[in-house]
Design a protein that fits this description.
This protein is α/β, with parallel strands linked by helices and about 500 residues long. It has 18 helices and 15 strands. Helix 4 links the parallel strand 3 and strand 4. It binds manganese (II) ion. The site of manganese (II) ion has 6 residues, from loops.
C-alpha cells in the first residue's frame, strides 16, 4: 500500500515525457467531480511544466466527440477520466495520424472494436491502474491517475528545465518547481466524488495519495462523524438530513432532531445563528457524537450500522473553515452540481482556485440543484407512479431534467404511494427523438437477485436503445414511443430476477 507502485509510475513517466515533448496539448476531460478534478490537476501540472494547453469537456466521449477532437490542429491530446473505454476509436485516429493520445483514466479499457474485431490491447501513453493490477473502481480514480502523471511531469519537467518559459510567462508566484504534491487534495476530492471511499475511508493507491497530501500540508485526516455537511449545514439539518444510518426520531425528523439537540448541554446558537459541526470544539463534538450513538443503540439500530456513523474525514486544510471547499465530500458535491448543469467551466474555475465569480456561480448551481430535486420529488409524489407486477414507473417528460431524474426517482422511493419493495423506473425527455431512462432499486432487492444493469441493458436492446450501469442503479437511452414495449420487457426481466 505505501511506497511507490513501480509499473504505474514507470508508465506515468513515459506519458510525462511525451507531454513535455509536445509544443502544445489539447486537454479533454469528463464532466463530473472526478473529471473536473482530473482536468484541474492536469491543467496545473501542464502550466507548471510550461506546456501550453487548451481544455475541453465532454459528457460522453463517443465517436463524434473524438472526431471533433481529431479535427482540431492539436498533435497531442491528453484525455483524463475517460479514453480507456474508447481505446479502439482513439487508436484508429492515432493510426490515421490525427493525434497522439496520452490517457490517464481508470475505466475498463475497450478490448473489442466496433466491428467485433479485438482492438489493440493498449497504446503507448496509456496510464490506467487496471493495467497494473490496481482496482480502478475502488483504489484509484481518474483524478488519482491524473495526479500520478502530474507527479511524474514535475520530475520530468524539472530535469529538462522546461519549467520556466523563456520570456518568464506562465510562471506564477508559487514555487515554479513544485513537485505537484499539493495537487493531492484535488485527487482526493475526485476519488471521494467517484464514491471510492468504502467502509468510511480511501484504500490502496488512494491512501498513498492521502499520505502525500498530508505530508505536503494540504490535507488533514482523522476519525469524525461520517455525516454529510459537517462544514456548511446548521446542526439540526446535519442530523435531520443524515439518512444513510437511519436513527429513529432524528433522521428525516425536523422536530425530533431539534429535540435531541435541545436535550444536550450545548450552546446551539451563536449570534442568533445555528452553529455548525466544523465550529464545535472537540469536547462538544464528543458530546453530540456519544449522545447520537447512545440514541442509536437504544432505538435498536444494528451495531454494524452504528459503526458507519464514524469514518475518516478528508479535510482540505488550506480552505476556510465552514465552507464546502474544506470537506472533500462537500467539495465534490459542489462540483457535481456544476457538471449536472453543464457548467464545467465553473467547476474547473473553482478547482483552479477562483474564489470569486466561479465559486459564487457554483454555489448558486448547487442551490438550484437542491431546489430542482425537491420540486421533482414533490411532482412524483403528487402525481404518483404506475404499478406493474414487478416494477413501478413514471414519465416526467420535460418537467424533470434527464440529468437528475434518476436521483429524484431514488429519493422519492418510500414517500407516500411509492413503495420500496419494487424497483422504480423513470422516463425523461433527452432529445427530440430519445428518452432517458433511470432505474433505482434498494440493497434489499439486490440481495434478492435484482440486477438493474442487466435489466436496462437487455430491455433497451429489445427496443434498439442502449443501457447499463450498476445492480442497484442503472440507466438507458431508448427511442421515443417505445415506452410501453420497454417497460413490459423490464417488468418481465425483473420478475425473473426476483423469482
Ligand atoms: Mn472517474
Amino acid at each position: 500500500m505505501a511506497g511507490p507502485i513501480p509499473d504505474l509510475e514507470e508508465r506515468a513517466t513515459r506519458c510525462a515525457r511525451r507531454l513535455c515533448a509536445a509544443d502544445r496539448v489539447l486537454l479533454a476531460s469528463h464532466i463530473d467531480a472526478d473529471g473536473l478534478t482530473s482536468a484541474a490537476i492536469a491543467a496545473k501540472a501542464l502550466e507548471r511544466a510550461g506546456i501550453p494547453f487548451e481544455t475541453v469537456f465532454e459528457k460522453q466521449l463517443d465517436a463524434d466527440a473524438i472526431a471533433a477532437i481529431a479535427a482540431t490542429d492539436y498533435d497531442t491530446v491528453y484525455f483524463t477520466d475517460f479514453g480507456s473505454g474508447q481505446l479502439d476509436i482513439i487508436g484508429d485516429h492515432e493510426d490515421a495520424g490525427d493525434f497522439t493520445p496520452v490517457i490517464a483514466d481508470h475505466h475498463q479499457p475497450a478490448t473489442i472494436d466496433g466491428d467485433g474485431e479485438p482492438s489493440r490491447a493498449d497504446t503507448e501513453y496509456h496510464l490506467n491502474p487496471l493495467l497494473f493490477g490496481i482496482d480502478g473502481a475502488a483504489e484509484l480514480s481518474g483524478a488519482g491517475a491524473s495526479y500520478v502523471l502530474a507527479r511524474a511531469l514535475a520530475d520530468v519537467a524539472d530535469g529538462s528545465d522546461a519549467a520556466v518559459a523563456a520570456d518568464g510567462s506562465g510562471v506564477d508566484t508559487a514555487p515554479a518547481r513544485s513537485d505537484n504534491r499539493d495537487l493531492a487534495a484535488l485527487a482526493v476530492v475526485g476519488a471521494v466524488g467517484d464514491m471510492q471511499a468504502s467502509g468510511g475511508e480511501l484504500h490502496g493507491a488512494n491512501a498513498k495519495i492521502v499520505d502525500e497530501g498530508v505530508d505536503a500540508g494540504v490535507l488533514e485526516t482523522g476519525k469524525d462523524l461520517a455525516l454529510y455537511g459537517k462544514q456548511t449545514r446548521p446542526l439540526p439539518k446535519l442530523l435531520e438530513y443524515a439518512t444513510d444510518v437511519h436513527i429513529p426520531g432524528i433522521s428525516n425528523d425536523e422536530r425530533g432532531a431539534l429535540r435531541f439537540l435541545d436535550g444536550l448541554d450545548l450552546e446551539l446558537k451563536r449570534d442568533g445563528e445555528w452553529r455548525r459541526w466544523s465550529g464545535l470544539t472537540n469536547e462538544e463534538k464528543r458530546t453530540v457524537a456519544s449522545a447520537l450513538v447512545k440514541r442509536a443503540v437504544s432505538s435498536g439500530v444494528p451495531p454494524k450500522k452504528i459503526d458507519q456513523l464514524v469514518g475518516t474525514a478528508y479535510v482540505l486544510s488550506e480552505e476556510p473553515v465552514g465552507t464546502e471547499l474544506r470537506d472533500a465530500s462537500e467539495f465534490s458535491t459542489l462540483l457535481n452540481a456544476t457538471a449536472r448543469y453543464e457548467r464545467a467551466d465553473v467547476g474547473l474555475g473553482v478547482c483552479l482556485g477562483d474564489r470569486g465569480a466561479a465559486l459564487e456561480r457554483a454555489r448558486t448551481l448547487l442551490c438550484d440543484h437542491r431546489r430542482n430535486l425537491s420540486e421533482g420529488i414533490d411532482l412524483v409524489t403528487r402525481e404518483g407512479v404506475t404499478e406493474e407486477t414487478n416494477v413501478q414507473w413514471f414519465h416526467a417528460g420535460d418537467r424533470i431534467r434527464e440529468t437528475i431524474v434518476g436521483i429524484v426517482a431514488g429519493m422519492a422511493m418510500g414517500n407516500e404511494g411509492i413503495s420500496r419493495s419494487k424497483p422504480i423506473v423513470a422516463f425523461a425527455e433527452k432529445s427530440e427523438s430519445e428518452l432517458k431512462v433511470s432505474a433505482r432499486g434498494t440493497h434489499g432487492l439486490v440481495r434478492r437477485g435484482l440486477d438493474l444493469s442487466a435489466v436496462m441493458s437487455e430491455a433497451s436492446r429489445a427496443v434498439e436503445g442502449d443501457g447499463g450501469g450498476h445492480d442497484v442503479a442503472a440507466g438507458a437511452t431508448v427511442p421515443k414511443g417505445k415506452e410501453t414495449e420497454f417497460i413490459e420487457r423490464v417488468d418481465e426481466i425483473v420478475g425473473e430476477q426476483l423469482s
